[in-house]
Amino acid sequence: MKNPDPETEPDYELRRDLFARFGLAYYHSECLHRELCILSACSELPPPALITSPRVEELMSRAFSLTLGEVVVKLEGVLRHELWKDALVAVERRNFLAHHFWFERVHLMFNVKTTRQLIAELDDDIQLFDKLDARVSEYSRSMLSRLGVTAEMQADSLNRVIAGEDDDPLPDKQAIRQLNRRLRGNQRLVRVWEFKLDDGGRPLIFELADESFWQLSDVGLGLTRFKKIDNVWIENSIIKPYLPADIPLRPKSDGPWKYEWKLAEGVTFWVRPGRQERTFKWGLRRPEKSEVVKP
């Protein structure tokens, strides 16, 4: 087998360096993608006292289902304009790497000089993605701080990942697609369950006609980790007489935890923030104006 001419034809080491640089460039583009997804999800969250874990998981999953281009478009008006414009440039470069780089540059891999030019081009991409990622991270730091996410919490999360500790997986793309379909129209609410917590609280679990389960969130019904009825659940006796009812999962809202639905017999189910942090209250308003209020 003929050895490559070191003056004109790249050897194994140089070609390996080219492939490694491509992988590193794409890796940094994925890091930027994730950073932008996290920023997008956090930008939709209410103040810390009004956040629920399932709602965070929903927004994170929804953001992670977007392409880099989609999430950058979504962040217009969230990012500073000059930072947003730079993110658009990064989208163009990442798309070129993903769909065109090898097709348009493959003929340059058979010459030492042009192979080194390709490596230099990829080094520029690495710098582009890495520096922009750092700028987005710095930009989002104040937002994360307002949400109560400290540097210590982030470091602890990273350490758990490094140690191989797995968190429960986020809802997958299929779950998000199903959610998006349900949000387009009314859903039939058939039962509302409750159970008692150790602290005395009684959370509500909403069951739809398709046997899916939901919990209250800042914008209406949100995802829950419950998949089946537990033997300690009981039907809520206050709401039961006014079901079934066709409701939108995300009703019109005047702000976080400020919304209502129409149930059967003209009864309105309403939700409002509680007087204490991290609490809400709900109640029923009947046509004759009498109300039932639950903390």
Jot down its keywords.
2 domains, 295 residues
Provide an overview of this structure.
The chain is α+β, with helices and mostly antiparallel strands and 295 residues long. It has 2 domains: 12-162, no CATH class; 185-294, no CATH class. The chain is built from 8 helices and 11 strands. The protein has helices at 12-43, 53-64, 68-74, 81-99, 101-105, 112-146, 151-162, 173-183; strands spanning 186-194, 204-208, 213-217, 220-223, 234-235, 245-248, 253-255, 258-262, 268-273, 280-285, 291-294. The strands form 2 sheets. Strands 1, 2, 3, 4, 5 and 6 form a 6-stranded antiparallel β-sheet that branches. Strands 7-8-9-10-11 form a 5-stranded antiparallel β-sheet, with no helix packed on it. The mean pLDDT is 91.
Radius of gyration, CA atoms, in whole angstroms: 26 Å
Structural class from helices and strands? alpha+beta
Give the overall form.
Answer: elongated
Q: What are the low-pLDDT stretches, counting only 5+ consecutive residues below 50?
A: none
The amount of helix comes to 40-55%
Which sheet architecture does the biggest sheet show? 6 strands, antiparallel
Query: Treating each run of at least 4 consecutive H or I residues as one helix, how many helices?
Result: 8
Mean pLDDT: 91
Number of strands: 11
Which H/E pattern describes the elements? HHHHHHHHEEEEEEEEEEE
N- to C-terminal distance: 81 Å
Strand content: 15-25%
Tally of domains = 2
